[in-house]
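Why show two proteins at once? Because comparison is the fastest way to build intuition. When a single record is shown, students tend to memorize it. When two are placed side by side, the eye starts asking what differs. So, the first record is below.
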Amino acid sequence: MGIAAGGNIHPGQGGHVRAHRGSAPKYTGKNIINPLAAIAAVQMMLDYLGQGEAAARVEQGIVHAISQMESQNAGHMGMGTDAVGDLVGGFVAKS
């Protein structure tokens, strides 16, 4: 599993974005999965919808979160899934 987001974009017709991920049921409820792929998908969606300023803030929030993490690997981030999300959200809210 990685932290990549991707999308099928059809200018003028619609599209969808999503986190590229696999299945890891062994991590369910453990608060150790890296949420940045899902957050990056939101950033892509905002950009696609013409919300460039909001998309840029989310991207900056992702960069901020990465700078605070020990690793991007599940279980080795130095914080939980919720804390990573809170870092991004807090950064976006302040900007």
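Second record. Ask yourself what differs from the first in the token line.
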Amino acid sequence: MTSLVMSLNGLSQSPENLSLWYDKPASDWMTEALPIGNGYMGAMFFGGVEKEQIQFTEGSLWAGGPGASKDYNFGNRERAWEYLEQVRALLADGKLKEAHALANSELSGLTHKVKGGPSFGDYGAQVTMGDLFVEVLSANGSVEKYQRELDISNSIGKVSYAQGGINFERHYFGSYPDRMMVYQFKSDKPVSYSIEYVSPHEDINETFADGMYAYHGKLKDNEQEYETRIKLDSDGLFEFEDGKITISDASFVILYHTAATEYLPVYPNYDGNDFKAINDAAFLGIEAKSFEKILADHREDYYSLFNRVSLDLGGDANQGLPTDKRMLAYNQGTIDPGFEQLYFQYSRYLMISSTRPGTMPMHLQGKWNNSLDPPWACDYHMNINQQMLYWPAEVTNLSECHLPLFDYMKSLVEPGKITAKEHFNMDGWVVNTMNNAYGYTAPGWGFPWGFFPGGAAWLCQHLWEHYEFTQDKAFLVETAYPMMKEAALFWIDYLTKDEDGYLVSVPSYSPEHGGISSGASMDHQMSWDLLNNCIKASEVLGKDKEFRAEAIKIRDEILPPQIGSWGQLQEWKEDVDDPNNKHRHVSHLFALHPGNQISVEETPELAEAAKVSLNARGDEGTGWSLGWKVNFWARLKDGDRAYKLFQRLLKSTENQGTDMVSGGGTYPNLLCAHPPFQLDGNMGGCAGVAELLLQSHTGIIELLPALPSAWENGEIIGLKARGGYEVDILWQQGKIKEAIILGKPQSELLIKYGGSTKLISLDQDGSIKLSHLDFE
């Protein structure tokens, strides 16, 4: 990677400075424990002195599905579509209450109660695999020099302290290449340990032999089988009794830990994975490797992703205060750009740790879940949350981390086609608000929140974005375009002509806000976006001329964004927006972000209407809502307003209530507080920072489009722009000192800075160097 050749006032970020650290153990899983992961598994460590707790799960451990209930039907009501025209007729007659009642009773999806399962019945939930407890048996006395740390520069957790004249050190990390979680315990004098795995699931078999512990278990509701194994390396003596491993007189203990389940993402049964063979292969792979080699391979893999992007805003990323105290000081007005750098990079760390090729995609909590019945099932929520989780993937140079989402989407197409037929009698495929690991693509079991057939259209934007950023035509041919076209077929069927000749979405609900409608604006914006991207993809591939012509015709007849009676961007076809409503969903601004139907340059009146709507909704919100608003204001080129919301996102939750509207902010472990913890706010905030510094959605690469005045000096290295370009920017006193753009040799592109746009050509080596003088 090419970096800037100049450095301003020592603004070159030192990667070893990127750490979260604390001066006491964690007492609460959600707010204080620290996350590590290898893509397949996620673990949270507490750093306890007498007893360490490492809670963990594996991404495919899912309750519910066809194994939980003979009546499981992917949520579908057979022939529900027979009521669709009745709902539409009631809406045409202005009978909104009756239309909603009928839609809620006949178009909603189904779940069935399951004994011993989560509260959502056979819909299921992603569930914890349990806890490891490692107890120190032979140390006592007061604790000194305690520190608990998450070093995100090296992707390693650390605990150190002294007790009773003995110095203790621990190191934890998740290795993607070796499919291992690794936990090392050291002391400068021999001590004894007790190690126990506590499972909330049914025990099939538990063994310990030759230093290898294995637990074969199954879930209670669907009998999904799994196995977790731990290989121990130590200079101490082992004993195993009543499920506990005791290690005596050990100066070190290393636990090599992996897990797998029988889940396979294949419709309709979702089972058949040889999980024991998976674990066998993982341990065979490390058989001849030392701890140092496993750690080195982990670091090399991690650096290959994490070190692509660095951000320096002119502050120390590892200030002397513990992170929880540092956040409180920041909230009280301490200027701390290093803390903002840390938050940005922490989000990238979380993405690398929780979504890698061949793994399940991130869910609402990434890969971290300690519950058998978690909030919203720890599922894949498609009306904003799942998409927001992946917003940083392309722009922050982590394209490979995007791939698990696409694999998951493939698994949804076949059941999604059945839902399109059963609920709408339409071609194509759909997903709605809540999606599980078992093909649940039907509307949710309650309206208005459950009805969101636009989920697949929004997901397909990610396919096109991945192509736009990578220029991977093979991906477009083999993966993206077929799914995009199938999703478009549904909207070509579903949209209907209104009295003015426009195509509208009937019935529709604006996500989680308001009642039934004859046209929620978000539906129109998403279907427009999907068709527009299909048209561009068809042109790139030089195929499907007839389909392209139909897509153009439909796209151009969709009701465009409307400006309402008080200057707002309308949330519905009907002009009924309440200027005093403060709801967290601002879904009707999809066309501004992440869509590109509205922009300051090309549709200034609509951009102004979007601003009116945002001002009316206000600057409060839950975690993900704040993250989205940062991106909205960045697209509106108001960096200071976006920065204000970014600061609000980083607000400490200490002394806050848990009200979902007035809550939000960040927990002491820097995980986003919806509340409860959801990872989407972290990812939305990270994407928002990138959006402030670089934009390319209009086909023009704009440098520092919405730079906050608080970030007067800074440097960003390695951001990606659409077209396959990589961008480094160094700025001083709010002006570009130097920018380097990398891409295809001798390619031409439009660059914008400070209101001036120019056409440039990259050199023969595929680079160009610019400064603010080039735009004057």
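One difference worth noting in the second protein: DSSP finds 17 helices and 29 strands in the chain.
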